């Protein structure tokens, strides 16, 4: 990907945003930590100065200045690096001992510069002044050791923050680049789809992350789109093929009625045949429109609770007589009590189509059974027969619009009954399976909760 495009990509912007956020957060934490450390070191310095002051003060005895001066001289000699300052002044302000040239006028703790104490350099000192037997005692210690420690901490924080920021940016850039590569694959796939390549699918990494989840939903949508487009193409072909014959017959009947001199009876017969062909064509188009409306999902807004077991009982009882008239038998197997949210009219149409399909395409003597089974939250509806069955390579084709098996072309129908069954099943979230009933066919509709 070009660098300019990469920098404009959302993942990279997220990486930069979170990287900067990390840097600023680290800086804020460091500033707070550094300030707390400085306060702690200052307090420790005050404690050290106070302890030294107390040790020196303890050597003073009433009207005995010699021990105090001796102690001061010892501390001055031990102060080889000059990090500590001492001064003992009498009542007149004369310096009796120490390494200071000037003493601050105020008592208590104070922060002063080396220049104020008459020393060379630009160091800062923390001093404590007080009265000892009428004399003035000054003890102080340089901030140099504290500043050196703070400098070490500052450098350590700086390097660690820089390293952490670099690592954060590098990791963020890597993750962003990986995410961008996957998004590019999605974009390329969708571009291919826009060019008409409906068989393109987005490859999944199998990690189960959000990109995989979105890609999976897109693939499902593409699969559905591909199926619908292929169905439309197939429908167009099947309409042109299946309606060509009745339209030709209709044209011949009308031509014959228009060109021949016929008596009323012959004319009536031809017109009745023409009307029958028109009705068949209208029935076909009505069924196609009904399937299209169902697939659009508009009927789903009218779903209500439906007692499916009562529906199955009622339809089976009605069609038992039809099966008897056709020399067949229709019986109900296990019927569990099931109530679902659905469209009662469409569910009725679905079951009627399945039963009529079995009655129409099975020979006399066939036993047909209907059952409704429930397993936990799932349930299944089946219609089975012991007729000639459906070849395995044709089982998926029977749900295509206007598709008819060769052996079924001599029977009434338009090849849309099972297409309507699948459309209604899809609307209700069911899957349709066609299996061998050994012998015969078993069509099962499985509904998930």
CATH topology of the domain at 298-447: Heat Shock Protein 90
Compute the number of strand runs. 12
Quaternary structure state of the chains depicted:
single chain
Q: Which structural class should the secondary elements be placed in?
A: alpha+beta
Q: What features would you describe in this structure?
A:
The chain is an alpha+beta fold and 449 residues long. Among the domains are: 11-148, Beta-Lactamase, CATH 3.30.450; 298-447, Histidine kinase-like ATPase, C-terminal domain (Heat Shock Protein 90). The chain contains ten helices and twelve strands. It has helices at 3-8, 10-58, 66-78, 144-194, 210-242, 244-259, 264-296, 308-325, 344-361, 417-427; strands at 84-89, 95-98, 108-113, 124-132, 135-142, 304-307, 329-335, 339-342, 367-375, 378-385, 430-436, 441-447. The strands form three sheets. Strands 2-1-5-4-3 form a five-stranded antiparallel β-sheet. Strands 7-9-10-12-11 form a five-stranded mixed β-sheet, covered by helices on one side. A two-stranded antiparallel sheet has the order 6-8. Strand 1 (84-89) and strand 2 (95-98) form a beta hairpin. Helix 2 (10-58) runs antiparallel to helix 4 and helix 8 runs parallel beside helix 9 (344-361). The longest helix has 51 residues, at 144-194. The protein is rod-shaped. The model is unreliable at 406-410 (pLDDT under 50).
């Amino acid at each position: 990907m070009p660098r300019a495009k990469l920098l404009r990509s959302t993942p990279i912007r997220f990486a930069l945003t979170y990287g900067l956020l990390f840097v600023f957060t680290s800086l804020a934490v460091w500033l707070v930590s550094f300030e707390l450390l400085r306060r702690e070191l200052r307090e420790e310095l005050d404690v050290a100065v106070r302890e030294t002051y107390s040790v020196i003060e303890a050597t003073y005895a009433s009207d005995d200045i010699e021990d105090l001066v001796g102690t001061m001289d010892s501390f001055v000699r031990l102060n080889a690096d000059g990090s500590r300052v001492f001064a003992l002044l009498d009542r007149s302000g004369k310096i009796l001992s120490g390494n200071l040239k000037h003493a601050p006028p105020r008592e208590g703790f104070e922060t002063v510069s080396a220049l104020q104490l008459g020393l060379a350099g630009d160091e800062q000192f923390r001093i404590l002044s007080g009265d000892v037997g009428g004399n003035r005692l000054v003890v102080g210690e340089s901030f140099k050791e504290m500043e050196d420690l703070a400098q070490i901490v500052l450098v350590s924080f700086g390097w660690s923050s820089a390293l952490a920021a670099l690592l954060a940016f590098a990791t963020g850039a890597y993750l962003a680049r990986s995410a961008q590569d996957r998004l590019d694959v999605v974009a390329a796939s969708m571009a291919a789809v826009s060019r008409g390549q409906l068989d393109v699918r987005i490859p999944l990494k199998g990690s189960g992350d959000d990109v995989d989840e979105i890609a999976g939903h897109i693939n499902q949508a593409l699969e559905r789109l591909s199926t619908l487009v292929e169905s439309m193409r197939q429908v167009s072909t099947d309409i042109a093929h299946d309606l060509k014959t009745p339209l030709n017959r209709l044209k011949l009947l009308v031509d014959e009625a228009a060109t021949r001199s016929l008596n009323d009876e012959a004319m009536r017969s031809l017109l009745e045949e023409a009307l029958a062909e028109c009705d068949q064509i209208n029935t076909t188009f009505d069924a196609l429109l009904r399937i299209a409306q169902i697939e659009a999902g508009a009927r789903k807004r009218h779903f209500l609770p439906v007692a499916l077991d009562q529906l199955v009982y009622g339809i089976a009882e009605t069609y038992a007589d039809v099966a008897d008239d056709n020399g067949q038998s229709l019986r109900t197997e296990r019927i569990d009590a099931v109530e679902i949210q659905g469209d009662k009219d469409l569910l009725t149409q679905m079951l009627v189509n399945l039963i009529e399909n079995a009655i129409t395409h099975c020979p006399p003597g066939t036993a047909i059974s209907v059952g409704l089974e429930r397993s936990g939250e799932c349930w299944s509806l089946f219609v089975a027969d012991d007729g000639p069955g459906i070849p395995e390579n044709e089982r998926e084709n029977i749900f295509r619009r206007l598709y008819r098996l060769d052996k079924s072309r001599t029977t009434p129908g338009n090849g849309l009954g099972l297409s309507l069954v699948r459309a209604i099943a899809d609307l209700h979230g069911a899957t349709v399976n066609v299996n061998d009933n050994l012998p015969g066919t078993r069509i099962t509709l499985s509904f998930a909760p």
